[in-house]
Amino acid sequence: MALKAIGLNCSLKGSGKEPSSTDKMIALIASELAGRGIECTGTVRVADLNVKPGVTSDEGEGDDWPDLRRRILAHDILIFGTPVWLGQMSSLAKRVLERMDAFLSETDERGRMPSYSKVAVLAVVGNEDGAHGISAHVYQGLNDTGWTIPAGAVSYWVGEAMGKTDFQDLPQVPEKVSQAAAMAASNAAHLARLLKDEAYPGVSN
After folding, report:
1. Per CATH, which fold does 4-197 belong to?
2. According to the model, what pLDDT value does residue 205 have?
3. Is 74 strand, coil or helix?
4. Whole-angstrom Cα distance, residue 46 to residue 56?
5. What ranges in the chain are assigned the alpha helix state H?
6. Tens of pLDDT, residues 181-196
7. Alpha-carbon dihedral 83, 86, 87, 90, rounded to 10 degrees
8. Which residues, given as ranges, of the chain have pLDDT below 50?
9. How much is the pTM?
10. Where in this chain does the record put each NADPH-dependent FMN reductase-like domain (predicted)?
């Protein structure tokens, strides 16, 4: 069975607005995954949805999280993309992690969360410092909620502080960024295949 990946763009901009540098970084990783036999089904722009605040898997009428949760968990690899805002992940990225908190109480008979044996990598872009701090916080949030983080799991680009150039405006992707995307994709694909063949065993009660 072919493995599948989905991108999650936590930009503050909806898809009807100007293009997103976060989309470009997610697409870079997705392209590397596709070259390694992973089916990439597209990217969801969280700003297009009504993901309500909360820490359960369904916050009631009008909440788009239940369907997004289902779509995410139908894949083997998550490309979690966020811009840098005020040196931090976006508020939508934080909200997604908060909604995943429900996984902690949704374990199976062996204590495994719905995200167990699934792999997550990170895409970060911005015009200021923050990529390393964001990676640390997102890694911890994803790990707490059951995702597996491979080695070299982030591809990022940050331009000059308070600068005007966005990642999507660059004439070409810097070599180091391309290398980071290739490594993240290679490690994610390898790890996802291992976990698909032999999932985490969990523990017996």
Report:
1. Rossmann fold (3.40.50)
2. 65
3. coil
4. 17
5. 21-34, 65-73, 91-100, 131-144, 175-197
6. 999 999 999 999 999 9
7. -40
8. none
9. 0.96
10. 12-153
